[in-house]
From TrEMBL:
GO molecular function per UniProt: hydrolase activity
Limits of the VapC50 C-terminal domain: 131-184
InterPro entries: PIN-like_dom_sf, PIN_dom, VapC50_C
Residues in PIN domain copies: 9-114
Transmembrane segments: none
Top-level EC class as recorded in UniProt: hydrolase
Protein name per UniProt: Putative ribonuclease VapC50
Organism: Petrimonas mucosa
Coiled coil: none
Protein keywords: Hydrolase
EC number of this enzyme: 3.1.-.-
Length: 187
């Protein structure tokens, strides 16, 4: 099911902020291996992280606009009324679940697995996956397309320019060990 644009994934802030993880997720989406979704709440959190990391407000606004322009159907709207009716271990994550419910997503991609209990997600037909698990699933079902998307991502790495193996190392350093190892085996 993860092999088509009909498969919808809400990307949590913690998988959008690290550039290398965001890049691979978005290249796979660009190659129609799944449909990405996010919300203004997620982008507000992303902007906060960028500001804490020294990114100017103008630059952070530009980055969020670029993402919305690249994927004009990704922004989930009208989910806010659901937030107060949801229960999660961390109330700050309710907006992510609300966006996933509103858009009829299949999965939430997040590094905060413990914050999205399976019994709660089951009520809404949702799953939670780490970016490493999500990406390896996509690669498993779309090996040729995944390799093509990865190679194009590498070709577009300009600041700094990196080769395939340097990008794989960056993926590993950012928690995508299985994804990097899988791609490495396919190159």
């Amino acid at each position: 099911m993860i092999h088509s644009v009909r498969f919808t994934a809400v990307l949590d802030t913690n998988v959008i902020y690290p550039v290398i993880i965001r890049d691979l997720l978005l290249w796979f989406a660009y190659y129609d291996m799944y449909t990405p979704k996010w919300s203004n709440h997620i982008f507000d959190e992303w902007k906060d992280v960028m500001h804490r990391k020294g990114v100017s407000p103008d630059e952070s606004e530009k980055r969020t606009l670029n993402l919305n322009n690249a994927f004009p159907d990704a922004l989930v709207t009208h989910y806010e009324t659901l937030i107060d009716h949801l229960e999660l271990p961390d109330e700050k994550d309710r907006h992510v679940l609300a966006a996933a419910i509103k858009t009829n997503a299949h999965v939430i991609v997040s590094n905060n697995i413990k914050d999205f209990p399976e019994d709660v997600l089951d009520r809404y037909g949702l799953k939670i996956k780490t970016p490493d698990d999500f990406l390896t699933d996509i690669i498993d079902l779309n090996t040729e397309i995944a390799v093509e998307a990865f190679k194009e991502m590498v070709l577009n790495k300009k600041n700094p320019e990196l080769d395939e193996y340097e990008v794989l190392d960056c993926l590993r350093k950012n928690g995508l060990k299985d994804t990097a190892d899988y791609l490495h085996a396919l190159l």
